[in-house]
Amino acid sequence: MHGKHQLMRNFYETIMPIYQQLASDELLERCARCLTGNSKEILHSVIWNKCSKKTSASLCRVKIAVADAVCKFNVGSLKSLESVQEENNILLNKKSRYLAMWRDYRRVYQRRRKKSVAFELAKKNKLARKRKEYYFFKKEGVT
């Protein structure tokens, strides 16, 4: 309960079991082996890139970040930008359209690249290397 913001005791007692579950060795091992990449984690990453966890933000700011992230996650940057601009009666300029199209292109490109055989092979090699390092780390013990 140290730090910039302190929790009231009843909140601390409610949150602590959840924290312990999330910080369990089993879950952390799965994360270290790169076995937890799912769509919810990707969406959370997009949200936290828009609204940092490290700084305090108002509820309104968080709601805006979540709405924007969900919209971009579901329909892409260009459609999201067009709908927001249209809703607010703002004209969409060429540069904004180009940047949104570029983001969508990169997103599709990265998705296709990650589905490729070469990427899967590299991912398996990385996982094997991590397992080998972990094995030697466990074998060596604490120094």
TrEMBL record:
Domain of life from the UniProt record: Eukaryota
Q: What is this protein called?
A: Uncharacterized protein
Report the source organism: Araneus ventricosus
